[in-house]
């Protein structure tokens, strides 16, 4: 088995047909079919089952595909590292960010691109769980995320502590008509829309526990991992929310009122994270240094 065969195999998996895979690889179909046959003979397994015109992976094929992806990615990273040892910064840097932490990125991106104009930045978005998975799957190199999260697999730099604030639709302001703050008990009977990760625990549990500490169960009418969607729903008058203050920096405030919570001390932290024990490109290293 060699790298070329693994590339051929992975392309067949991705295309679902040998014909399409051969076209993508710029080769004729018979040599590609022959390489697949040689690979199956060497391993002593059947890698594909035919379903009509489409090829589907067998269980041994799924195992090989998983490891092939890792090996091919490691090869790409090795090539990048070798080339970078003799070159300046260029190429692509993939970054993921939680929307509620995005305020940490624009200025740093501007400074980075001014210093390294030959680098192209690719941005991905997701909640904290998604950003962690993108890093583990090597789809991004660096993530800006919200703590708490399981950091066992990651190196990180803490960026800031941020207090939680209450955000109410303007039409709710008869509750606090002339104040810039609100108490937790004032939120007791309001319909609440709360940030909730796709998987794992974090801000949702922090806010719910704070409500319970003040002696009430929150009246939750919506859970969502996307802060922009939450704020849009608040703006439409559906309910109020409790979110980190810096999550509001890029959201228009025409239809909402932001209030300090006078009797709560809950805070959250943002962090820049990257995967431990993995080669980091020079592009990523220099980007991370801007946050140190």
UniProtKB/TrEMBL annotation:
One of its GO terms (cellular component) is cytosol. This is LysR family transcriptional regulator. Keywords: Coiled coil, DNA-binding, Transcription, Transcription regulation. The keyword DNA-binding applies. Residues 65-92 form a coiled coil. Belongs to the LysR transcriptional regulatory family. The keyword Transcription regulation applies. PANTHER family: HTH-TYPE TRANSCRIPTIONAL REGULATOR BSDA, HTH-TYPE TRANSCRIPTIONAL REGULATOR YBHD. SUPFAM superfamilies: Periplasmic binding protein-like II, Winged helix' DNA-binding domain. GO terms for molecular function: DNA binding; DNA-binding transcription factor activity.
